[in-house]
Amino acid sequence: MVDWSSLDTVFLDMDGTLLDLHFDNYFWLEHLPKRYAEQNDLAPQAAKDHLIPMIMAERGSLNWYCTDYWSDRLALDITGLKAEVGDRIGYRPHVVDFLDALEASGLHSVIVTNCHPDPLRLKLERTGLDGRVDAIVSSHHLGKAKEHPEFWHDLQQRVPYRASSTLMVDDSFPVLESARRAGIAQCLAVLAPDSQREANAHHPEIPGIYHFDELLPALRERQSVPSGQ
Fold it and tell me: Is beta strand 208-209 parallel, antiparallel or unpaired with respect to 108-113?
């Protein structure tokens, strides 16, 4: 599924890949409509019917992920509202073991996320994830989402990498397809990003896993190979 011997760099998505997407889905589909309804004197379902199409219209763009954009548009403190349900932030199964094995393998690990820097800080405070990888890059620092074809070129300027020896792991097929078009050698999908929802269907051309324990034996085998072998 992954040719670990050919890799130098592993790019990792955060939400839905390392962290349970339940937090984000719950926030956007339940908590935000509830708070929006309270502020605007609406019935909860009316608020949801108003918000969800508005949010979905921005899907794939940087605005979709931008806390500042939604705070301005909805006249709400989105980061503050996220903190209200921050207890739902958590790792997906086997992620800590996988990250430990990745560190032991000597591969360069980089979180490449569309998460805005403000909620990113909240998630790092809750998880300590920044202490388990070599670097973190938010697409907001580059001014374009991972789905954008020029994202990967701009990422190269910030985190030099060789596409031919890089793996990208993400729960978003549009992101993985973008990475493939940019020449990323290996792409892997996470098919069960939200612990409270059914898994996604397999992609016809991109291999997928449900949980990281599926990768651990081969990754640990790489660790056990003596240097120079």
Answer: unpaired
**Ordered DSSP codes for 95-151:** HHHHHHHHHHHT-EEEEEE---HHHHHHHHHHH-GGGSSSEEEEHHHHTS-TTSTTH
Q: What is the pLDDT of residues 60-86, one digit of tens each?
A: 889 989 999 999 999 999 999 999 999
Show me where the domains of the chain are located: 4-20+91-224, 23-88
Residue 223 DSSP SS3: helix
Give residue 65's identity as a one-letter amino acid code: Y
Residue with structure tokens 């790792």?
Answer: 91
Residue 68 token pair: 């500042």
Rounded (5°) CA angle 52-54-58: 110
Long-range contacts at 154-161 (CB < 8 A, ≥ 24 apart)? 155/112, 159/110, 159/135, 161/8, 161/9, 161/11, 161/108, 161/110
CATH of domain 4-20+91-224: 3.40.50.1000
Q: Is the pTM of this model over 0.90?
A: yes
